Amino acid sequence: MGSAKALLAYAEGETFLDHIIASYRAAGVDRAIVVWSESASRDPRVLHAIAHPLTISLKTRHVFHENPSADRLESIRFGLRNWNGESSVFLQDVDRPFVNPSVIAALLSCEECTDFAAPDVFGHAGHPLLLSETVSHAVLEAPTTGMDFTLRDILRPFQRTLVRVGSMEEAFFLSININTPAEYREYFPVPESVNELVPA
Predict the structure, then answer these.
(1) What is the pLDDT of residue 2?
(2) Predicted TM-score of the model (pTM)
């Protein structure tokens, strides 16, 4: 059986999802929408994690995408539709777990930020992204049905701001995403029974 990425161990007693939510809470973000795949609604491990969150002080809403074949962009749009917020919003991939409060705070405090902001990872946009309200609406309203669109395509007309992070090491870790067991083992101790990763 595979492991939902959000529930992989980040540290003892802390999952990827726990760490990510705690990082946003520490940076002063007080609400989150967590988008799960449709199949996760039948996974007892996921339901247990939702029922017993370690980071309960952050107002977190969990939503399950009805479309089992939804791609990343459609999952983002689904999350934004459930957000109902009139403010900037972070996009955080659960397979990029090395976010920390200082990176989030740097994005929040950026005074020169334009349509959207991202950490500066050696001259390229890292993650997470901070979208303005204008860009969030554009993502929702883009006519992607029947088109081979990605989030990058939608963001292309907008002005991007790269925000410097604390150190080269910090920037390096923001470039890492965990998609395979080998990548997980490279950065985390892992039980031998973990032999497959499935999307959350």
Answers:
(1) 45
(2) 0.85
